């Protein structure tokens, strides 16, 4: 059997790990392998590695396979090639700072570190959309993920790269201040004096609450402003949006499109249908991209 016919795609989040075996020829997930485990990102390195590896082993066990090649979508800052974490000040995985996470995983799983490829989580999202989603027909593309943080990536000349725009200057702060869950919670408190848990709660109250409609209107305008510069800088043919906030896209995308059209920008915006599967598919797809690069090298 081709050792890369099946690759384990892994998505490392701030509170969970998701893993699933990907059929690289069919470009889909073996659903029986899907595994999700909660992770204490404030725990020790030993605790976190153990939880990750338990999930990895279980995903393979569910489809009766031995551990093979792994593609991992990992938040940054991170040295993906060498497997070293530089995550700090993000309220997660601080214990890994400066450590060789790839070697720690390989040791715990008793595999060679060359069996592990790591990539930025936002890049994996866009790579997954290109590998198995609606974005595969484009040559020049930008993608963002909207959730607890802001992820951004660019696809051009056959490669996906992290755009790293979360901390870029935007309005009176940085982009993530305005384009993440915390902006919704902060803005709702400013307008009502009340706290709310998440964007989903706002979505459920949208139809009956003028204040919430105003908040989504503002968010759509801000996102349009951000996407205008991002699209123009990269001359993107289309935009792909994912992340938990994208589940409420019908509440804000009309405002995004209205603003972009007012600026003379008329490009398709695709809301991810793969959702969380995109990062898994994109992480596994790193192996296909690596093989393609090897073939194309003179």
Explained architecture:
The chain is α/β, with parallel strands linked by helices and 298 residues long. It has 2 domains: 6-124, ATPase, nucleotide binding domain (Nucleotidyltransferase, domain 5, 2-Layer Sandwich); 138-271, 2-Layer Sandwich (Nucleotidyltransferase, domain 5), CATH 3.30.420. The protein contains 9 helices and 15 strands. The strands form 4 sheets. Strands 1, 2, 3, 4, 5 and 8 form a 6-stranded mixed sheet that branches. A 5-stranded mixed sheet has the order 11-10-9-14-15, with helices on both faces. The protein has a two-stranded antiparallel sheet with strand order 6-7. The chain is globular, with a radius of gyration of 19 Å. The model has no long low-confidence stretch (mean pLDDT 92).
Number of domains: 2
CATH superfamily name of the largest domain?
Answer: ATPase, nucleotide binding domain
CATH class of the largest domain: Alpha Beta
Report helical residue fraction.
Answer: 40-55%
Secondary structure: number of strands: 15
Total number of helices: 9
- Say what the CATH topology of the largest domain is: Nucleotidyltransferase, domain 5
- The separation of the N and C termini measures 28 Å
Mean pLDDT: 92
Per CATH, which architecture of the largest domain?
Answer: 2-Layer Sandwich
Write the element-wise H/E pattern from the N-terminal end onward.
Answer: EEEEHEEEHEHEEEEEHHHHEHEH
Structural class category: alpha/beta
Q: Major β-sheet, in short?
A: 6 strands, mixed
Classify the beta-strand content into a percent band.
Answer: 15-25%
